[in-house]
Amino acid sequence: MPSLVPDLARERGLYVHIPFCVQKCAYCDFYSLPHQLDRLDSYLEAVALEACQYAGLKFQTLYVGGGTPSLLQAAGLNQLLGSLGPIFDLSSVTEATLEANPESITPDWLQAALSRGVNRISIGVQSLSDSELERVGRVHTASQAMRAIEMTQKHGFRNVSADAILGLPGQDWTSLLITLETLIGMGLPHISLYCLSIEPHTPLAIHPPPGIPSDDEQAELYENSLGLLHQRGYLHYEISNFALPGYECRHNLNYWRGGEYLGLGPAAASHFQGKRFKNKSDLEAYLQDPCRQIEEIEDLPQSKKAGEEAILRLRLLEEGLNITEMIERLGDENLVGLMWRLDQLVKEGFLTRSGAIYRLKPEWALVSNSILARVLED
Amino acid sequence: MKNLRNFCIIAHIDHGKSTLADRILELTGVIHTTNNEQVLDSMDLERERGITIKAKAVRLPYKAKDGQDYILNLIDTPGHVDFNYEVSRSLKACEGAILLVDSTQGVEAQTIANAYLAIDAGLEIIPVINKIDLPNAMIDECRMQIEDMLGLPGDDALLISGKTGSGVPELLEAVVSRIPPPPDDLAAPLRCLIFDSYYDSYRGVIPHIRVFSGSLVKGNKITLKSTGKTFDVDEVGYFTPDLVPCDKLETGEVGYLGAIIREVGDIHVGDTIISPDHPETPEIPGFRRVLPMVFCGIYPISTNDYPKLTIALEKFQLNDSSIIYEKETSAALGHGYRLGFLGMLHMDITLERLKREYGQDLIATMPSVVYKVVTRRGEKSEEVMIDNPSRFPDPQFIDHIEEPIIEARIIVPKDHIGSVMELSEKMRGTLKNMEHPDKRRAMLTYEFPLAEIITGYYDKLKSVSQGYASMDYELTGYKPGPLVKVDILVKENQVDALSFISDRDSSIGKARVLIHKLRKLIPRQLFSIPLQAAIGGKIIAREDIAPVRKDVLAKCYGGDISRKRKLLEKQKEGKKKMKMVGSVEVPQEAFLLLLKMEDED
Question: pTM for the whole thing?
Fold first, then answer.
């Protein structure tokens, strides 16, 4: 079944990074700093300064992520969205998402979000097993998470998403099943299910707790989860993302379709006017001079960009990659090699092709790296 | 000619031959004090391994105590069993030999082998005991060993230290007084021995020669006895060790000639050079074409590098005509070459030099000996020589297989006899004789299949004897053996480069070890990969590589995209270093497994 969200590939998304957390989780390698909340005000001022460089830009989606954006509380949220509104053209924003952690969601914050036009909340639930949460250093309990979801829904948010992690220490199918069934039962239209990845230099890599499921066990958990979510009507629209029809995350879809986005804040990345660039991961430097933080600009040749877009689009298991559309946009000459490689992968049984659309077969989703690597240009 | 002396130094490896050569060069003023660099070993690799690979010659002016001026020609010889034939040709160019024995080690296997070669060549032998400056020198024992094991007068042995130089002046006097001058045969027609050669890109092949009769002048015509080919000599000269042109080389002299010889294949060590005016001049006895004993396949890691490899081999052969090579195609590895070597050391050195000096990234397959396979189809019987297991005939037509056999002489301290015998039995050795040349040691004579020696016997011998055993061997012929060919299948595809020949008894064990190692070495892939070993159609070992279950970039959005694309690009780079066998990516190390397998079990 094709996605109900149309491919508006040339959409533009705005991302704001909130690099603060109550406590760093053991698996996290994103840029976030605990115990710096006193700097929130000056941080939000810096974001507004950085935003001014791109004044007047028009966006279709907005996403405030982190870190923990719910730590902004009502005042911070009002300050942030209040300052961005006049700088950018946000009149066509159809999806505005805030990330939140269960322990810091408050009625005031939700109220402020609602009144500022936020229409989607993504909650970092991760698990509904207290022992699993504790082992990776989450600061909330399962019941706190459920209360946070209920509170969010009561405030009138229909489009609520939960992140869950597959492969947590101590996790088995029973505990994952309870987590997923509970989230489904609470009526969440969107679930992200990420495999635990042990990133170098994180506490999890340095002191791995016992009971991390093996790759084989994680694969079983993933297969079981696919079955369950499919049965309950969720579309497996991206390798790690599941949604009831119409609830796919537009902001993220834009990433996977190779669309434009602007990221504000330290460590935030952008894809703008054909170039990818990223701010330094340094809050101190950012506060000093938020407009001069870009650390590397990547300007790929067209044929490489085509490969990059292909590996992103193939993650969209339902929508797939429309080669005709890409040819129209990027030109024949940049896609010859790519098509040859895609057809080869079709022959070997990793992709399907129907008409102009190539798709990754869902059974290869969990081992997609080596397949996607072959999509890239030599 | 009476003031001319041609001699060489022969010794077991590491008994100090090159150091002594340096001292002699210093004493005769040819070189000034060296920084421990051995002049005659010019290749880096020789210095690293402490082995002299190619023979060379140096002309040394020497004023003896009798007040007369002499010319000494020191001819360097390789000291390893692989180069036995070359040694014998170098010896042929001399009238005498210094037989060097390390006083801390005593007579070793190669001392004996080299001494026998020198005795066979009719040389005057001066036994010399070296390293007498060391506190653990066993001079009396060495004298006895020289007497008992070599049949040479031990009491006459000179005592020297190559390191300090003590005794070396007396040794030079002995060279003059004990080694006879070359016989004077100036009036006879030209007759020279080629004992070495090298390739110069401007002047072609430069043969190193010893004149046995007549004389050779620039402008002469020469004929090669073995082929009848004739060349015009445009230069003659001698080594200092640099090439120094001179007017002529006379009977007894050692030097080189230049004659614009473009084909390396025209010059063979041991061949005789004569004058075209006297085609009846007899050849110098002992000439033969050297036959390679060990073969292996070499393949470029990247198939695009095949032309580069071809050029490297062509160049390489110019400097080492004992290497033979021909094109070979492997289903698993693509286009490559099959190389033939004189022995394992020769193979190791050649592969290393191809890598270092010619920048070649290579996969070398397991070395093989040359098997004699007798096939029978109905009444018709045929004999084929096969140096590549993958070319073995269909087993149903094989009547029997014969393999090359060597006789090895192993000298070992008595404490280690048990472990050496145990090892030798495991390697299919048959004990032929055991002698006790002195109180400490035994000399064992074994018969082995050559195949066992090339798959690591020597290293193991060293390890079970804590480095004390020494060995030398010679090929004695072919014998039938209970041999089978083991094929390796990766996901139902036979990998020709992994096939090996084994004796039937140990074939299953070897196959299991190999399959197990392959399983550990080949990374998990998207499909399950059965690994099998088979004799004929019969599977004798099997293990399966389970498919990879999780290899995914989970959180892929926002800023991660550039980084994650690079991650996948890196993964792709890693794949390029793999060889595709059917749909399976096999790391290059897999093709070396058989070699290593022996070391670790």
Answer: 0.71
